[in-house]
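COMPLEX REQUEST
Ligand: molybdenum atom
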Amino acid sequence: MSTNARIADPDEVISFEELGLAARNHGFPLEALRYDVTPVGLHYLLTHYDIPAVDPGSWRLRIGGHVDSPVTLRLDEVRSLPRATHTVTFECAGNGRARLSPRPISQPWLDGAVGTATWTGTPLAALLREAGPRAGAVDVAFTGADHGTERGVEQDYVRGLALDDCLRDEVLLAYEINGQPLPPQHGFPLRLVVPGWYGMTQVKWLTEVTVLDAPFTGFQNEIAYRYRETEDGPSEPVTRIKPRALMIPPGFPDFMTRDRIVDAGPVTLEGRAWSGWAPIAQVEVSVDGGETWKAADLDPLGERWAWRRWTFGWDAEPGEYRLTVRAADAAGNVQPVDQPWNRQGMGNNMVQQIPVTVRPAAS
Ligand SMILES: Nc1nc2c(c(=O)[nH]1)N[C@H]1C(S)=C(S)[C@@H](COP(=O)(O)O)O[C@H]1N2
Ligand SMILES: [Mo]
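STATUS: Structure written out below.
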């Protein structure tokens, strides 16, 4: 049995199975780019299996493995630890997958597997230090309370992360989103938040934190979240978020195609850009599908792990346009116009394309 995603045949359309995944795991509507912080119900969702039933009274967090003093905590004990809050842009590593050609079959995201939330919790580093990783500790495994099978492998959802990455100041065990207790779909009662990393790292319904003296080799790290060109060839782990800019689609939409109609005249195009590698340094807009580019205006840098707002003044004259936007970060990573294809459809940060008809202004 292959543990790779299947690739769609050239004329194969989206199946009921994919539609089922897409309905459970909804994206965020692009007009929600207008909010600095995404309202909870508009944040994207991705859950591999079922949302587990967790009883907060009997729930425990266990920190153990290759440590000197294992720790077990009740929810009220976690909540009484020092608090920290970070505003963080999340993005699923599969965002953009459904636009790839040929198309890897999995959760068929278009552009909307994104959201920015204010996460409150307690810094992971202090708890890990209290448990005391022993000499030789390399990775930490984070286990969720959800369970399922995936490509024939039965498993709890578990992700590994290098101990050094776990000890960064910004990493949280979060119990609140936007000032409210986590709702079931976002990981109640506790989740991991690792700012800058793609979504698979943000383990929901956390129950166990296990320090390991050998590299973690579980399914979600070794099989699922890899950049892989061929079925059996070499692969690289999916880690931090590549740069992406998105635009609020201007004007108003057609119901079916979602193509846009805009009245001629001055239009302020607006959106957000982010990168998990370095702060956003530049955003450029094209109204001709990527032939020519002009720099957008950037809002001042805000919180490091939150997206950055941009605007662009467009003098729209009647005609047909294809609006496109691309981001570059301070580490020199630039969003591509052409698809970065890989076998499992990971990290497709190819630019958004918005067909727009500009109609003459009513006189
Ligand atoms: N336990 C558990 N954690 C999980 C997942 C999961 O299926 N189970 N999905 C991951 C993936 S792939 C993503 S993109 C994010 C989505 O977080 P959200 O649903 O809160 O937006 O959660 C991550 N954490
Ligand atoms: Mo994801």
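REMARKS: The pocket of molybdenum atom (ligand 2) is lined by residues 46, 92-94, 199-200 (CB under 6 Å). The mean pLDDT is 97.
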